[in-house]
Amino acid sequence: LAGIGRKVIFHATNATELDFIKASFGNEVKVKIAQNYGRKVTVYDPPEKQPGRLKLITIAIISPMKNYLIVLEALAKSAEDIEYDIYGPVKDAAYWELCKEQIKSLPKNITVRYHGETEPNTIDKLLSKSHVFIMPSESENFGHSIYEALSAGKPVITGKTTPWNELLQAKAGINVSNNVEEISNAISFFARMDNEEYKSFAAGAKNYIEQHTNEKETDLQYRRLFQISE
Questions:
Q1: 3-state secondary structure the chain
Q2: Tens-level pLDDT at each residue, the chain (230 residues)
Q3: What's the predicted TM-score (pTM) here?
């Protein structure tokens, strides 16, 4: 009603956001797409992958959006030996209390460690210690931590409402619905792997991110967004 839509250019990071903006402000508004930039991570060789053992990691804020509680409930069904390291600030204290109660009830074959907030310059080292990154978010418009994990050669278990889909077909991870059974099955899938099969998924993760990102095209998108001449 204020006519803002006629006075601004909206920035969307993907086609889904573009549709949402037009649905909110009308089809006549100007919208330009310029996708997010991701930070590629280089890591050391991961620990050897032994069948029946798995090292999981999540680096993200503690909130219901990231679905930590469902991951913990899925771990309770795992027969394999799982180590799960969590890094990130608590944004929802009540939700984290529920998670801590679930952690207390986990069987002895599951070890969960919460390390608190971490600095960006430590992420390379932290990812190096893990086998698989897990974060089945309710939704991500980009998911920088997912991008970093894939670029580091970490297969990812994540939701189906992110830009990073068809992971299993690319041997880069698994997209799951947000339910305990699917997440539990995905965890067991990686836990049962031997080192050779795991290495094929690690290579698949790196290859996936190379094929799904184009920094030169992203540069052009931002030049168009801000009308920067070559």
A1: CCCHHHCCEEEECCHHHHHHHHHHHCCCCEEEECCCCCCCCCCCCCCCCCCCEEEEEEECCECHHHCHHHHHHHHCCCCCEEEEEEECCECCHHHHHHHHHHHHCCCCCEEEEECCCCCHHHHHHHHHCCCEEEECCCCCCCCHHHHHHHHCCCCEEECCCCCCCCCCCCCCEEECCCCHHHHHHHHHHHHCCCHHHHHHHHHHHHHHHHHHCCHHHHHHHHHHHHCCCC
A2: 667 667 788 988 878 888 888 898 888 888 888 777 667 777 667 789 999 999 999 999 999 999 999 999 999 999 999 999 999 999 999 999 999 999 999 999 999 999 999 988 899 899 999 999 999 998 887 788 999 999 999 999 999 988 899 999 999 999 999 899 999 999 999 999 999 999 999 999 999 998 887 677 777 877 888 885 54
A3: 0.85
